[in-house]
Amino acid sequence: MELNSVERIVNGSEEPSHLDLALLHSITENFSEKKKIGSGGCGIVYKGILRNGVVAVKKLKDDNWKINDGMFHREDILGIEPLEIHIPFEEFKISHSIELTNDTDDHIAFVTKSKLERFYTEPDRGIVPPRSKCSVTLAMQAQVSAQPNEHYTEVITVLSTRVDDGALATMDIVTAGDIFIDSEEGKVVDEVNVMVVFGTLELPGEE
Predict the structure, then answer these.
(1) Where does the record place the MSP domain (predicted)?
(2) Which residue ranges form the domains of the chain, and what is each CATH number?
(3) Max CA pair span of the chain
(4) Which end of the chain has the smaller Cβ count within 10 Å, N or C?
């Protein structure tokens, strides 16, 4: 399958279909470590670069070559978009959004974790009902100032897992932190990193 076919799938003009392994190697730079953005119960998540955006590609672990439909269903947790946010200096006081999409029939709890000193997320935890979306706002801390020549990258980690309907309130998510540990058999905790790039993007060849 050609690259432009994948891009048509991403923009919704073409139905999803089988993707060639060679193509996945191409858009993830052979599943490079530097493209790794997270992990789930059955594999590692990599960032795939297309001309019209960024996609998440999950590579199954070597010992999971046989996976049944139920396991695939449990792996399907939250869709996260975008996977990379670029904030130019001119927009450093403008808030941006990360959209969490739950296309499953289950309730999914999430929490955002980071070492961000310049940004905050709101909400930083929550429960996304079945077949619905949740928007997480990313904004600069009020006391932070920015300089035109500044350039840095920070990471927001989004953890998510299925929870029983009514078993957990949003305020309980952090105190019940063990729900994000996949210690139970069959439990899946998804972990995806969202890159936040502030300042002018460096062009190829620049030092």
Answers:
(1) 77-199
(2) 1-75 (3.30.200), 82-200 (2.60.40.10)
(3) 53
(4) C
